[in-house]
Amino acid sequence: MKMFKRFLTAHFPYLADENEDWRRWATNQIELLGGRKWQPTKLYGRTKQLKRLDRKSSTTLSNLSQVVTDQGGRYQMNEQKILIATDDGHGMETAGKRTPLFPDGTYMKENEFNRAVIDKLNVHLKRNNFDVLHVSAGDKDTPLKTRTDLANNKISNGFGRKADAIISVHANAAGSTWNSKVKGIEIYYRAGSKEGKKLAQDVQEYLVKGTPLINRGLKTSNLHITREADMPGILVEGAFMDNPDEAKLLMSDAYREECAEEIARGFCQFFGRQYIEVSKPVVLPSGMFPVEIIIGQTSLLGLLIEGRSWIPVRDSFNALGINTWLFDKKSIVVNGNVLETKIINGSSYIKSIDLQSLGLVKSVFLDPDAVNTKRVLIYPKEAV
């Protein structure tokens, strides 16, 4: 079942949000394939996160769900997620927060960049299973105290707890006239905050890799957002809006999207979780249908083509511990045997029955209890 959910998450990202609608949809799909209702008894996809968070301070952990161990030694966690507070800097009408005039007399307000990045970042964070609290929603310049009070839950923020981290996104400026000498990205954190510094390092690492701008490094300053927030906080200066070249970047949707994605990657690294890539939904060719493949305790999503079940090679062989195979001339070769292979959406598939024919597994058969025979059971050799 774990692999089945992983496949859905990778290829159907719009279903990845762990809410009631998603669980209801996933449960229905699994039942249609003949499976049992999904009962999450294991902490899916967060083992690495737990190991990382064990090293964090009690302050950072104070708002996270309590982790318990059941009789089988498996991790469980309630539905409460990590909460990130996001802030889009100055308001749309804040005086002076804009680029100098361009030759055509136009200019960009700083909040146009800030808000666009935060809106995109919120989407990335939610896709990666974070809760998101936008503390400066609206076009007016929200008071700084209101922003941190919301993050600290001193003003009820709707989540009933303070955030686990906060980020404020800005565009930098050295003055009010064009200046080609100032350039680059810098991130601020609260002096003395080890967690704040680590968050800044993780976000900066990805920002300077994914964008064309120079790294101005990490800095500390007496900023309200990082000083008054009761959690690790950073303030990102995305580029200089008084540098004519960087101003053009700040105005481009591509740069805004890049900043949002790289910041999200940094947050995932800080909290010890794997970043979920944005993928386009997979559309199966006509005549192909999904089928659940059960290999021992592993569930995969295979294909049903003209009444035959086809299995994804890499994941299936990994589940079976088979490493004596190769891809040669668009075919899968196992111990010198060339198998009929289909390349679908960039992945290789072979017929499940070929595993039995080659003696790689004990048996392969359709589950007689499955609905519409849409589940295939593959028993490894060592199975009793």
Task: Give an overview of the whole structure.
- With 384 residues, the chain is an alpha/beta fold.
- The protein is 32% helix and 24% strand.
- 36% of the residues are buried.
- The protein has helices spanning 2-11, 20-32, 47-53, 58-61, 110-127, 144-151, 194-210, 224-228, 244-251, 253-270, 313-320, 353-357; strands spanning 68-69, 75-76, 83-87, 131-134, 165-172, 185-189, 215-220, 233-240, 288-295, 298-305, 308-312, 325-328, 331-334, 337-339, 341-344, 347-351, 361-366, 375-380.
- The protein has a seven-stranded mixed beta sheet.
- The protein contains twelve helices and 18 strands.
- Helix 7 (194-210) packs across helix 10.
- It folds into two domains: 1-40 and 285-384, no CATH class; 83-100 and 107-270, 3-Layer(aba) Sandwich (Aminopeptidase), CATH 3.40.630.40.
- The chain starts with a helix and ends with a strand.
Give me the secondary-structure topology:
Elements (H helix, E strand, L loop, with lengths): L1 H10 L8 H13 L14 H7 L4 H4 L6 E2 L5 E2 L6 E5 L22 H18 L3 E4 L9 H8 L13 E8 L12 E5 L4 H17 L4 E6 L3 H5 L4 E8 L3 H8 L1 H18 L17 E8 L2 E8 L2 E5 H8 L4 E4 L2 E4 L2 E3 L1 E4 L2 E5 L1 H5 L3 E6 L8 E6 L4
Parallel strand pairs: 3-4, 3-5, 5-8, 6-7, 9-18
Antiparallel strand pairs: 1-2, 6-8, 9-10, 10-11, 11-16, 12-13, 13-14, 15-16, 17-18
Helix pairs in contact: 5-10, 7-10
